[in-house]
Amino acid sequence: MPSSFGHEATKAAAERRLGIVLVSASAVAFALTGVLTKSIHADPLTITCWRGFFGSILITLYVLWRRRRSGGRESLRLGWRGWLLAVEGAAASIAFISAFKFTYVANVAVIYATSPFIAALFAFLLVREKFRLQTMLAAAVSLCGVAIMVGGGLGSGHLFGDGLALLMTAGSALYMIMVRAFRDSPVVWA
After folding, report:
1. For the chain, what are the domain ranges?
2. Helix, strand, coil distribution of the chain in percent, nearest 5
3. Less Cβ around it within 10 Å: N or C end of the chain?
4. Are 94 and 145 in contact (CB under 8 A)?
5. pTM greater than the 0.85 cutoff
6. 190 with 82: CB under 8 angstroms?
7. For residue range 3-16, what is the model confidence (pLDDT) as tens digits?
8. What does the angle CA 44 – CA 53 – CA 35 come to, to the nearest 5 degrees?
9. Which one, of 112, 139, 110, lies nearest residue 123 by Cα?
């Protein structure tokens, strides 16, 4: 028995390390998105299309690899919930890339930082999930910061981009709630 426990602990530790590496790598890639998007001399839809094209190839390879590894038990049928996730995620992605083209990267980052709080609000409104007082206070402070950022942009010509960043943030928050609500949908495939 001790051998089995030791093996499980080692496996859990390895999975935890892999998780830390993957989340860190995704944070670096996500942090560079604004700078890289600003440096590309193409319109937002062109960037989004190429981003979606290469992303879809990588996601398809990953999903097929996972499916083969599990013996083909995972279904690739999206159903209406999966398609809703796909369309909503695509709309948020278009707003995300477009926001970088029409406002400052810092504005997009600050506005996006409110997504957990907007997700908590959507969870309360859509699925009646309770949230704590600390969450409400943090959300209020966060939204005040966004109001200051956006308010400072009034008259600077960046209000449209800030609005796109807010739309992207709301879309991402809604996506988080949909993923939790549609547990039976193949989220990665969508």
Report:
1. 1-39, 43-181
2. 80, 0, 20
3. N
4. no
5. no
6. yes
7. 566 778 888 888 88
8. 40
9. 139
